[in-house]
Known about the structure:
Elements: H1 6-13, E1 48-54, H2 55-71, E2 76-82, H3 84-97, E3 103-107, H4 111-116, H5 134-138, E4 141-142, E5 145-146, E6 149-155, E7 157-160, H6 162-167, H7 177-189, H8 207-216, E8 222-223, E9 228-229, H9 234-248, H10 262-268, E10 273-276, H11 279-288, E11 297-299, E12 312-319, H12 326-336, H13 339-349, E13 352-353, H14 362-366, H15 368-377, H16 389-405, H17 410-424
Parallel strand pairs: 1-2, 1-3
Antiparallel strand pairs: 3-12, 4-5, 6-12, 6-13, 7-10, 7-11, 8-9
Family: Belongs to the bacterial solute-binding protein 1 family.
Signal peptide: 1-21
Keywords: Signal, Transport
Amino acid sequence: MxxxxxxxxxxxxxxxxxxxxxxxxxxxxxxxxxxxxxxxSTGKATGTITVWAMGAEGxxxxxxxxxxxxANPGVKVQxxxxxxxxxxxxxxxxxASGNTPDVAMVGTTWMGEFASSDALDxxxxxxxxxxxxxxxxxxxxxNGTSYGIPWYVETRVLFYRxxxxxxxxxxxxxxxxxxxxxxxxxxxxxxxxxxxxxxxxGGEGSxxxxxxxxxxxxxxxxxxxxxxxxxxxxxxxKATQYYQSFFTDGISNKSAPATPTTEPDFVSGKVxxxxxGPWMMSAVEKVGGAGFKDKYNVAPIPAGSAGSSSFVGGSNxxxxxxxxxxxxxxxxxxxxxxxxxxxxxxxLSTDLPxxxxxxxxxxxxxxxxxxxxxxxxxxxxxPPSFPTWEQAVKGLDGELEKITxxxxxxxxxxxxxxxxxxxxxxxx
Length: 428
């Protein structure tokens, strides 16, 4: 899911998969922790595999798979492109009927659901997990077991008009929470901005706006050894109070439209700061025209007591247990994690590599703005892989909207969100 809240929001709009099982025993390969898939044979891949992929990635993937087929003569990779808005239901129906593809691209927030339904094959030990960004690798793990690989990643950083920042009296990006607020206010009072920074005013996906600040202050979305939700922690409360203050102080627009006008507002200077992902670079430069790339910059999320952190999203690649060609399925997934393959995929799709060493190649190594995303990915975090995550976080999003738009007390809102999450349970 990309372009604004891409993978995650598409995932969150889908109906959650109902899970009735509470885990599997160790002898069935299961989700009770630390399982490793059986080894994959050495040698060339053989036969045919079916692959499902969503959105633009599904359209572009066949061009990449030609290289895998060329390296493994006789292999056939059959890619089916699926619209994001239909994907979740298609996956759950295929799992229920036992007619899953061999391999698939899966949104990160779906991993807990699908693993807990016993649909995914654990990652073989020969796939080196240490080469991935840690936060991205965590998105593949359910109860300590990894399923598949993180294929591509995205994270959020601060976009700011560097030319207008100078008018506001700032020569560099803010590095802490107070600095961000000071710059945003100065953008209004000294640089002519209507709003100093564009922040999502609650609603679906707004947790992704708050959590980078909360994680930067040491928040954890789980408690009890990772076995329960933790929406009312002191760290999340502090971050939510900070987030609310932008709206109560008139620095951010609490009546912002549901469909953001980020690019034109950023280019005009109406809203000269926002937090988003790498796809927004080309978007604002397209609207801004020639030379606009020199009028803005990007910076890590301003740090809290635990340093700078952000949200890591993207998509994973998994192998389903029902595959009829397990060896070739895993060889294909492993091939997708090769640094050279990841770098080529970036040239085809602009999807950022999940493998750290791929960032040493081509534009990924030379582009200073992209390097900021790479640095942020080193500390970016993902939500828990509970099967019920998408259900539970809706309660948090709803309370965040009350906090920003009606001035609800953050402590009250978070306690309400926590009570709702506890009533839903983790699904494990």
